[in-house]
Structure formats: structure tokens, C-alpha cells
Design goal:
homodimer; 209 residues; mainly alpha; Arc Repressor Mutant, subunit A; Tetracycline Repressor, domain 2; 8 helices; 70% helix; DNA-binding; Homeodomain-like_sf (chains A, B); transcription (chains A, B)
Chain lengths: 209, 209
DNA sequence: TGACTTATTAAACGCTGTTCATTATATTTA
DNA sequence: TAAATATAATGAACAGCGTTTAATAAGTCA
């Protein structure tokens, strides 16, 4: 067969990505295969290579969409809850949104962190951009909490907190490695409370030194 | 060929695991394959199935050895530095040892977290045991810092800190996602200092409430 | 209607994990 | 020593994988 033109290139791309995401959601990241995606969208496996350079490329695209999802979710929530919420609450909200996201989409979330392109791991521009946007969400409330803190300290705090929350998500996502019941919220609260209390204290003192 | 008896079953197992680890170290976790391991040890691929149920099983064994390595490393360091080191320093040492380990063996470390057995992810007993041992390393200095804190709070603190350090290791290991230069040590110090300062304060107050 | 163009495929290649009948060797028995 | 037995290990097979590309069916135009 040839020349069906049922779908444009862009539509084909969209179909493939959606099918890939469904496959990942339903069967896990190791179930992702060119032939399975193709079967789901009624094309041959070779057709995928008309719109993606390879399966790696397709994964990067899925990751881009996952990242966009997360960003959209976070900015929507932040926008919505902006009504003079104390910054600590804003940070808590961000952390829990991230955690919920990782729990709701465990496989897509896993793909983001477990899909290493084999050779040199070149970080695409859009990813750097998206990560910076995520950091921005955390940075704003932190700055409110300590308006005069220097940029370096602020940057460090953003990353420390992000790593902390990510670690909670990572270890609780797959591993039933510890704690009975879902105590992830308690972990988040614990981390934020203790870290922030001292960080605010130190950061507001700092300016008078 | 048959019946060479060059190696006992136990020796064959050991050979295969070592070859697998080397392969992972040199070429990454996706390069691991039965045929490649077999070639390295001068056996056929089928021979591996005489000592492992499948490649998944082999991975679990490698992960077990990696975990043992980490545990040995930590307990050796803790033993060595025991001479009245302040507990904060002990915690810092543990964190940095963990981080160094993940940097020194990035691929074996990745295998531990990225090797999900497809179907039900059953956590083997030895892993639960090993993880508890790791938690024990953190728990001891924490208890020194707040001798009268209740068990639940202590357990929570152990896990919060572990997740935090793990998050730093995870995000800095692959991702050049942020920060120029190796600022992982700064992140560790930042996390521990702020978290612990307030945690100690709260935990010592707690007993008088 | 016939020539041209092109979207899509089917088959091929070399790889993968895994199984199992076959085989070559070691050991035991006669 | 020779024959019988037991078994360590293999090699071929199967189904599936990512990827490439010659072949083909269908749309377009003269």
C-alpha cells in the first residue's frame, strides 16, 4: 500500500506520541516498541521513521510533553492559589503537586529519568528551559520569605529543596522500600518545615552580617 | 562440547556476575546482555540459565552486590571515624559517602533504581534488610543529637534525610540539569545544616511539651 | 488513458532473551 | 580395558526488537 494520506505528518506524529504514552501508561516503559505503537495507530513500524529519527527521538518528545504537562499543572495551581497565600504554603503546594504528578503518571515520570540516550547525554534546550521554569516556581516564594538573600544562596536553596522533593518522589514511587501507608505527605511537610524554618532564619540574619 | 568442569556452579555464577558488572561499568546498563556476558567468560549464553533463572535474576544479584558494597563502605568509614566525632559530622560523612559512591559507580547505581522487574515489583528480603541497615547508619547519629525524641519522629527524620541525599545524587548523577561545576557538596551541606539545626531544636523542645 | 510522483509498506539484517534436544566429555561399571 | 551411564555445556531455534530500503499501491496531472 502507499499514499493513503489519511493523516498529515503532524497528525501522524501526534498519533504516535499519544499511542506511545498510552502504551507506557498501561504496560510500563519497557513495553514501548516501534511495532506496538505502529499497530495501535494502524501504520507500519517503518512509518514512524518518517516523523522521528528513531525511538530515542520519540522518547524525548514524550518527555517533552510530560514536562509540559507538569509545568502547566504547576503554573495553573500557582495562579489559582495566588490569593495572598503565605509563601510556605505555596512551596508546600508545589511539592505536593510534584509528588501527586509522579504518583499519577508513574511510568511517564520514570521515562523522564530513566531514559538515558546511550552515548553522550546531551540535554536538549527545551529541557533546560523547562527545568529553569520549574526552578522559577520554587524561587518566587523563597524570595518572598527572604527578600534580601543573595542570588547564590537562593539558587542553592531552590535546588536543595527540589532535590529533596524529587528524592521523596523517586524513592516512594517504585519502592515500597520503607514506611507502611502513604506517608509521603508527612515526609514533604517534615522536609519543608525544618529546612525552611532555619533557612529563613539564617537568610534574614545574613543581611545584617 | 560438554562437561568441561572448568568451574563449579558457584564459580560460574561469580564469573558471570563479575563480567556483568564490568559490562555495566564500561558500556552502561543497556549494554548488558546474556550473549555479551557469556562471551566474556568463555561460555555460551545458555550456560547462564544454569545458574540464574533469567537475566532479571542476574540483575537482582548484581544489585545485591552493589548494595553490599555500599554497606561495607559505609560501615567501614563509620567505624574508622568513630573517635568522638560529633553526630552532625557523622551524618555529613554518610551523605558524602553515598554521593561519592553514586558518582564512582554511576551505572551500577543506576541499575539499582532503574531495574524494575516488569510485573509485580516484589522487594526481595535481602533488599529490605540492606535498606534497613542503611537507615540504621543514619539513625544512630540522629538519636545522639536528640536522645529523647520519639521513634516516629526519628523514623521520619531518617527517611527525609535519606530521600534528600538520594535526590541530590539522582539529579546530579546523570543530569547536568543545573549548577555549573560540582556543587553537590554544597547541596549536601546546605540540606543537612538547615534541616538538622531546626530538627534538633524542635526535637529537644518536644520532650518538654 | 498513460506518465509521473509519492506515501507507505513488507521484507531484510543483526540484535535480543530464552528453551531444549543434542553432544562431547567424565565417571562408573563390567 | 571397554562399555555403559551420567551430565556439563552447547548450538540451533523461536519470537520479538530497532532500523533501513527496495518495492508498490494510490493519488495527481497531461
Amino acid at each position: 500500500m502507499a499514499r493513503r494520506n489519511d493523516h498529515s505528518r503532524e497528525e501522524l506524529k501526534e498519533l504516535a506520541l499519544t499511542a506511545g504514552e498510552q502504551l507506557i501508561d498501561e504496560e510500563g516503559i519497557h513495553a514501548l516498541s516501534a511495532r506496538k505503537i505502529a499497530q495501535r495507530i494502524g501504520y507500519s513500524a517503518g512509518a514512524l521513521y518518517l516523523v522521528f529519527t528513531n525511538l530515542d527521538d520519540l522518547c524525548w518528545h514524550i518527555n517533552g510533553r510530560t514536562m509540559a504537562m507538569l509545568n502547566t499543572l504547576l503554573s495553573a495551581q500557582i495562579e489559582q492559589e495566588k490569593v495572598n497565600r503565605p509563601p510556605q504554603e505555596a512551596l508546600r503546594l508545589i511539592a505536593k503537586t510534584y509528588l501527586n504528578f509522579s504518583a499519577e503518571w508513574p511510568n511517564r515520570w520514570a521515562l523522564m529519568f530513566e531514559h538515558h540516550t546511550p552515548e553522550s547525554i546531551i540535554c536538549p534546550d527545551w529541557l533546560i528551559h523547562a527545568v529553569n521554569q520549574l526552578f522559577g516556581f520554587v524561587q518566587a516564594p523563597l524570595r518572598q520569605l527572604a527578600p534580601n538573600v543573595n542570588d547564590e544562596s537562593l539558587q542553592l536553596a531552590v535546588r536543595t529543596l527540589w532535590c529533596g522533593v524529587h528524592g521523596i518522589a523517586a524513592l516512594s514511587s517504585r519502592g515500597k522500600l520503607f514506611l507502611e501507608g502513604d506517608q509521603t505527605d508527612a515526609l514533604i511537610d517534615n522536609l519543608l518545615t525544618h529546612y525552611l524554618t532555619n533557612w529563613i532564619q539564617e537568610s534574614t540574619n545574613e543581611q545584617f552580617v
